[in-house]
Amino acid sequence: MHVLDQILSIPATNSSDQRDSSMLTFETAAIQGVSGIIEKLTSLPFAKVIHKVGTLDAQPSSEQGGILVMVTGALLVDEEQRPMNYSQAFQLLPDGQSYYVFNDVFRLIYG
Questions:
Q1: Which of 21, 54, 73, 111 has the most crowded CB, counting CB atoms within 10 A?
Q2: 55: closest CA among 73, 76, 74, 75?
Q3: What's the pLDDT at 73?
Q4: Are 108 and 27 spatial neighbours (Cβ–Cβ below 8 Å)?
Q5: d(CA 16, CA 28)
Q6: What is the DSSP track for 54-108?
Q7: Would the pLDDT of 11 be above 70?
Q8: How far is residue 18's CA from residue 24's CA, in Å, rounded to a whole number?
Q9: Across the chain, which distance is largest between two alpha carbons, in Å?
Q10: What residues have CB less than 8 Å from 39, skipping those under 6 apart?
């Protein structure tokens, strides 16, 4: 799924997968709207990210066709050799023949 691939490629800066009503919570920062989300993701202090998805679960989230997705896994940033664990939950809502990200919550797991 194109939208899922975009979301899992942090920083996901494809504005066609978001709307002005979209919201991202990245760690403790809550951002709403396409421009704010793109600004946050492009300002992250790393250039390269490799994802290793450990689990991915999805289920319908609304009668209008929404999808709730929960992902856990590990990422390697830049040249780091030790992966960082993360969890991410997002809700996709239908828009014509595609979906857009309505909510996205991303958290690194420390410890």
A1: 73
A2: 73
A3: 96
A4: yes
A5: 24
A6: EEEEEEE--TT--EEEEEEEEEEETT-SS-EEEEEEEEEEEETTEEEEEEEEEEE
A7: no
A8: 10
A9: 44
A10: 31
In 3-state terms, what secondary structure has residue 32?
strand
With bands split at pLDDT 50, 70 and 90, how would you rate the model's confidence at 17?
Answer: confident
Using DSSP's 3-state secondary structure scheme, residue 53 falls into strand
Which tokens is 5 given?
Answer: 């691939």
Taking residue 60's Cβ as centre, other Cβ atoms within 10 Å add up to: 10
| Start-to-end C-alpha separation, the chain | 32
Q: What is the pTM of this model?
A: 0.83
Per-residue pLDDT tens over the stretch 58-109: 999 989 999 999 999 999 989 888 999 999 999 999 999 899 999 999 999 9
Q: How far apart are CA 58 and CA 69, in angstroms?
A: 4
Mean pLDDT, residues 36-61? 91
How far is Cα 108 from Cα 71, in angstroms, rounded to an integer?
12
Indicate whether 5 pLDDT > 60: no
